[in-house]
Amino acid sequence: MEVPVIDLLPYLEISPALSSSRPEEVGDQLGASLMGLCGEVSRILRETGALMVKDPRCSALDNDRFIDMMEKYFDAPPHFKRFQERPHSHYQVGVTPEGVEVPKSLVDEEIQEKLKAMPEEVRPAIPKGPDLKWRYMWRVGPQPSNTRFQELNSEPVIPDGFPEWKETMDAWGYKMKSAVETVAEMAAIGFGLPKDAFTSLMNQGPLLLAPTGSNLRQYGQEGTVFAGYHYDINFLTIHGRSRFPGLNIWLRNGQKVEVKVPVGCLLIQTGKQIEWLTAGDCIAGMHEVVVTSRTMDAAAAASKQNRSLWRVSSTLFAHIATDAMLKPLGHFADSPLASKYPPMCAGEFVKQELAVINLKGSKGES
Question: Are 270 and 284 in contact (CB under 8 A)?
């Protein structure tokens, strides 16, 4: 099964004219065709947990410019990159070195039981320890002026020697932000919720442009796990196209898909926060990054052309605002599964999840 592709342009052309967020009035303004498109977005997120989108605001050139800079950064010596490390902020800004983040599949007993029950042909690679990837977290958009979770809303970190850093990160980050907010709006309409049901909760939340860097020169052997099997703890995750294959995702029916993002497209995956807000109607999507034969072929071609052998992901994590309440919304509150998703402040939820995967911050912090 191919991951479905949704063209956002028809909705973008009419969305500025939408004068109400109420479902019945939005339906009248959109008409049957666009309501059907919004329904497709919500259906695909519910039934598969992943979809591709085409957004005319996000060009392949923008993505390439961003990846070019991140390849240069990740190629810097480890001691230089560690100057941007901020463990006291739970690694939610700056760099996370390789060997820090523990994949959920190594520490979550429920996930481990599910892995045992999986058919061998769709089972993920089992990592032997912490992830071998580096990651950089860059906040996109405004921070809250008053929050209980200051450590989750810290100031961005800019490495020395990269004068283009802020402009490049913001240029790509804001375009990804626009795309994921549009999908959130369309999904809300498709679920029969007010169109701003999700985006209002995302207001001033951590939208984290989070490129990962995986060193194929050092760890380019087939089967190497850069990011072990896991779900994302945020609301929605959006990926641009990487220059190297290696991302595998699992659809809700258990099917394993080796992702091939077409040029000009973006991949959206459901995170744990949308699962909470929909009382499990959507389920957080599982994924991994591993060196495959296709990864090795791409690395060999890059080596011949004297290109970088860092596999850079172009990823943005869209979170619900840390001080907002996570709880099933609207009609989802009447779901028989709603009791599995009790009201919880998003910041508390994030801190609990980060502690499990070893991103709890410095000693003494929860």
Answer: yes
**Scanning the structure block, which residue is given the tokens 């991994």?**
288
Whether the Cβ atoms of residue 234 and residue 272 lie closer than 8 Å to each other: yes
238-294 pLDDT, tens per residue?
Answer: 999 999 999 999 999 999 999 999 888 999 999 999 999 999 999 999 999 999 999
Q: 38-71, pLDDT tens digit by residue?
A: 999 999 999 999 999 999 999 989 999 999 999 9
Separation between Cα atoms, residue 210 and residue 137, nearest integer Å: 5
C-alpha angle 198-276-18 in degrees, rounded to nearest 5: 15
Q: Give me 332's structure tokens.
A: 């989802």
| Model confidence, pTM | 0.93
E strand or H helix that includes residue 136: strand 134-140
Burial of 294 per CB tally in 10 Å (0-12, 13-18, 19+): middle
177 CB neighbour count, 10 Å cutoff: 19
**Three-state SS at 79:** helix
- Find all residues with CB under 8 Å of 310, minimum gap 6, and list them: 70, 71, 74, 75, 213, 214, 215, 216, 217
